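Model: Ready when you are.
Researcher: Fold this.
Model:
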Amino acid sequence: MLVKWPRWRTVRGAGVAMARNASMSTDLLTVAEIAASMRVSKMTVYRLVQSGAMEGIRFGRSYRVSRVAVQRYLDSVDPAH
């Protein structure tokens, strides 16, 4: 299995669960889960990940995003939160 880490690393191995740094949670969410919780479309989440606004990990043809990355994005959009 080839896991592509956006813009910084490509890792080979089955079931690789590596974190970019120690503060990043390994609790990963699907695009559908994030879209439902944010009440936006899945395409909106895909665009956020692909643009780099929300940090995500690509597994094959799907993306996973940590809860920490989602919270970072939401905090950056709404600084009063």
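Researcher: Now this one.
Model:
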Amino acid sequence: MADTEFQKSSRDPAALKARLERWLDTRLGGAGAVIENVSSPSANGMSSETLLFDARWKEGGATVSAALVARVEPDLDDVPVFPSYDLEAQFKTLQLVAGESDVPVPQVRWLETDREALGAPFFVMDRVAGRVPPDVMPYTMDSWLLTAGESERRHLQNATVGVLARLHAIPVAGRDFGFLEFDVPGATPMRRHYENQKQYYEFMREGRTFPIIERAFEWLEANWPDDEATAVISWGDSRIGNVMYDGFDPVAVLDWEMAAVGPRELDIAWMIFLHIFFQDITEQAGMPGLPEFMRRADVVAEYKRLTGHSASHMDFYEVYAALRHAIVMARVFARSAHFDGTEWPEQPDDVIYHRNELDRMLRGEFRS
């Protein structure tokens, strides 16, 4: 991925300061809230808008200070990555994960569904100190992870697989997690997940045809597993770029907007494939990257060691991950084109950076 920083929003974080300050003061019952240092991170994320800020207010005669984060629904005029943003579902998911596992997630504080305050729904959570493997430039090209030792990277890899193991241990059977279910046709969680992706593709393509994506849908139908694993709470965007680390240990698992109920292989394959995506871009640029990192055999073996579960049908789930990411990448291009005026190429597939890798996968050439 190029090192260009994409514009992500037409909103000015500094202009939101006064509105956010008024909202917080009202929320706290007139506690003299003051907000400072409002900013938006640039190294990761292209979907929901993220505002970082410091706040202080009076509580029981004392001054309380907090480093906070607001996740804000994107402006519909800014060509959002996803068709809809359920901030309440994300808020509930964070509460669920914090309450029923030891997966490290930020503490959520307030949910605001009224658009009046900032012009969109949002929620506020505590900010956690740590470091994140960057997307821009990719951590495979230049990052603290690239310069780390092999044993440190393996520690980070295993610890992150451990996050999945602990998340997937949350009991699901017989419980109502309707806010994580897709309201689309389908007899099983995986079928509904897949149908939701088909609808997402129709939303994203806006009349264009992406041959590589349509081939992938056909491949998945032809190779659908005979058996579907028991559903778990799926993080959805399970990649190291959505984890904050203290050293090489996860201290905050972020970005839950793609969370759902589905087979655990959804998260395992996504974690593997997103590294393949960055590694492939790095190799195309003539750089070595991290070829020994996040290999399928190693990730699957560690997951089995931790859970006893043998991940199955991984070819299928990695193609599905590559398909899902292809749809996201095409929409990200549309979003950036909205801001910088870039013209669509004659072949829409050209905006999908990993189209060649996906083509190899569809031909049975998987990178393990």
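Researcher: Key takeaway?
Model: The beta strands are 34-39, 49-59, 62-72, 108-112, 122-126, 231-234, 243-246, 249-253, 260-263.
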